[in-house]
Design a protein that fits this description.
Blueprint lengths: L15 E3 L6 E3 L14 E4 L15 E6 L6 H8 L10 E4 L2 E4 L17 E6 L8 H5 L2 H18 L15 E4 H6 L15 H12 L10 H7 L13 E2 L6 E5 L2 E6 L3 E6 H9 L15 E4 L5 E8 L2 E6 L4 E4 L1 H9 L10 E8 L2 E6 L2 E5 L4 E7 L2 E5 L5
Parallel strand pairs: 3-6, 4-7, 4-8, 5-7
Antiparallel strand pairs: 1-2, 5-6, 9-10, 10-11, 11-12, 13-14, 14-15, 15-16, 17-18, 18-19, 19-20, 20-21
Helix pairs in contact: 3-5
Length: about 400
Amino acid sequence: MSQQPPNGVFLLETIEIDDAHTGEGRWLTVEGKKKMTAPEYRELDRMGNSASSRHGARITNFLLHTQEGNGTAESLANYLNDPGHGASYHYTVRDGIVCDVVDTDLASWSVLDANSYTINLCFAGSRAGWGPDDWAQIDRDIRIAAWLAVQDAKKYGFATDVIVPPYQRRDGISDHKYVTECLGIGNHTDVGYNFPWPRFLRYVREYAAGTPQGPPPNAIDDAYAANSWLGRRITDGELSTPDGAGRFARFEHGYIYWHPSIGAHPIPATLWGRFEELRWEAGPLGYPVTDRAVLNGPDGQPWGEVQGFQGGALYRRDGKGAYWVHGAIRDRWNRSGSENGVLGWPVSDEIPWDTGTYQEFDQGRVYWTPRQTLATVTADGIDKPLHDPQS
């Protein structure tokens, strides 16, 4: 090559990469392995409180979003940091600035029932209706998004496959439209078909090159070793689920279910009956995506439990039954403070009503129709509307 590496750096093999966007050449390889360096960007700490626990969910997907507005990375982060708005992303990106809004160990408020197992990035100032020329203007930010996606995939152990339209359900990197079309959650269409998927895929492959792949773990055995409360093992080995994709095993005090895209999670006997009533993993709940989490009351003592599934969550208050909370009603209930808010614990599943449904809680109910979701608080037998700070 005509140029030499920078002074004081000895490389066993060197290449020079010409950045198509900036025209800058950079030395990138060390010890014989071709390796891309991070794109240049400025990272700002804008961490707020618009987040929830993942309750032990294994992260399986990194998702891209559009803002549908004209904000900057910082102005969008400031908006998301008001929990009353009921929305957040892990990252906002624009013009080479990355704002960290939610710690990736926590769930952002981005994709309803998929929040617990996804990482979410929003291109500030972008729109789902953009065409190829619009996306070409932010190529630098697209490259940054690819870098962040690969780094998080390495950190949390999910695949760096880019899942493009038409979608297939699996570990990897995709967009909000994947959640709508493939997971059946919500109705968003961003970033959509006009996003430059081939270019993004090329960037992801560059950054993911050389990522070591270890041997697959025996996930059910590992989950059993980490949860002694399950008691003795009853199933000899593992059994296949009817869909052929998963495995499960029975134990004295529960079951462990495994799916290749989700991992292994134990379901305690206290929630198993409700899971069975909803037709196990073949029903609307799907596979578990988190371990069971014990919830404490205001006095710090155990109050009940929750477990997340692909299609929502099961909540059970001690001494009561287990109820399924999901979709827009769950999202609205979360914004009211979940079981610690004014509505309290769920005391029913969703009940059909007019053109929609409603769900009963200790201190009120949440209604859903195709046009809106609203909550009421019961006082003296009279329903009073509960103000939604997002409205």
